[in-house]
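Worked Example 4.2. Consider the chain below.
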Amino acid sequence: MTDLQISKTVTLKHISDVSKSFGIDPNEIEMYGKYKAKLPLKFIDKDKAQKSNLILVSAISPTPAGEGKTTVSIGLSEGLNQLNKKTTVVLREPSLGPVFGIKGGATGGGYSQVLPMEDINLHFTGDFSAIEKAHNLLAAIIDNNIQSKTTSLHIDPRTIGWKRVVDLNDRALRRVVIGLGGTTSGVPRETGFDITAASEIMAILCLAENLTDLKTRLGNIFVGYTFDKQPIYAKDLKAEGAMAALLKDAIKPNLVQTLEGNPAIIHGGPFANIAQGTNSVIATLMGMSHSEYTVTEAGFGFDLGAEKFFDIKCQSANLKPKAVVLTTTIRALKYHGGADLKSLTTPDVNALKNGLPNLEKHLENIGKFNVPAIIAINKFTSDSNEEIEVITKFAKSKNIKVAVADVWGQGGIGTLELAQAVIDEVEKGSANFKPLYNWQSNVKDKIETIATEIYGAEHVDYSSKAKANLKTITNLGLENLPICIAKTQKSLSDNPKLLGRPKDFIITIREIEIAAGAGFLIPITGDIMRMPGLPAHPASENIDINDDGEIVGLF
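Applying the procedure from the previous section yields the following structure tokens:
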């Protein structure tokens, strides 16, 4: 059966029953129908959260199809619950871009799903829409101020970096000219659109700890300069209050359920290749406040989402993870070992062995943060016993726990070995989390630490524009912000064609964007773009609604 068909076999619990099992009075939640609810922020208890065991699920460098971190995260939470550990899985919300594009939905798969999958994959509770509106409100206010003759701050349009956003893959909007049509239609200037998941508002929502913090961060958004070189922020335009008002519900995390009826929290959705790639601090703390174990995931490979999770989110919110589950697939290792994408379901031990250096590098990177790693082999039906044994022997040679997880085919039962390995590692108490770098370090030092230590680069080159950006950062007094590198997910390098564990390569920083509200800097590498395009045959071609109002074709 397809994921959607499997989800239809489940009789969903009413969200009030899910709330009870989570530990919150159903009268206190804000219901969105029978199966979704918002959780008020007052139910976050930081003292209780410190006692929860936070487990991060990450992955090796993925194939274009993804390797199943979300599915493993959900399956692991089911397995921990089956072992009588009260566990909540905390995930990001899907973006409509991938849902209608090439990747499909982001609610897990098979017997490891969060439900209702159609709602979550489409409009859900409207969080993305609210983020989009808040972002575009600031864009409208900026252009209105440029047009105004009475309240103008004399913003130089050439210095404005704030684009508009839409939650779809639409390459035609990457670069546009606005303000055409005469003096009553605004001031013409070049700008563009990013996808909503790349919006700084999304990043702010996911790092803010409450409404007050949210408003402060919104006010700190850097807009550009006046004609006499004075910096302009959103607070100078008096925009933060209205923007926060649009986000009053979006800031509250969403409660849903897993296929086995356990609580799941889904909130926020920044991409990991162009943003920080993890769910909100609020959602994570909410899960930790009511759970013995909290399982969360970070997007793409460990070099992207997980590094940002540790160096940005954990430092910002004082989180101390107890273990990392590194999702590994035999097909991805064969891909990194030189096998053709179309042949990954064919057993090939030699290609698998050639791909092991990619796994080895990600394990080394986990060790840099002083957090223990557990390898989860996300099982596919095409995996041979001989191939599984290769990874098992490799893990033993590194003295690292490994478990085969049949999350798609069996759900929680298929992850009992993995869940027990996680419990054993946590109870050993070997985690002593430390970040990779100090926020107070020089900007170039921080960038180069990530590039050399995590990616394995020989050194870093900076374009003339990036060098000018470094001077701007210094002039604005923002040198002490952490780093959120935008990089391809397909390779440890910034070249998507360099698979496996590339060496002796150079990372090129073409520009550095300033996300002063979110509280980080975004060095942009290679050809990475913040507005994806659709493939030749997008997933939208298969999505439909029948006469009974049921969605079909989602995966």
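The first strand starts at residue 30 and ends at 31. The radius of gyration is 23 Å. Compare this with Example 4.1 before moving on.
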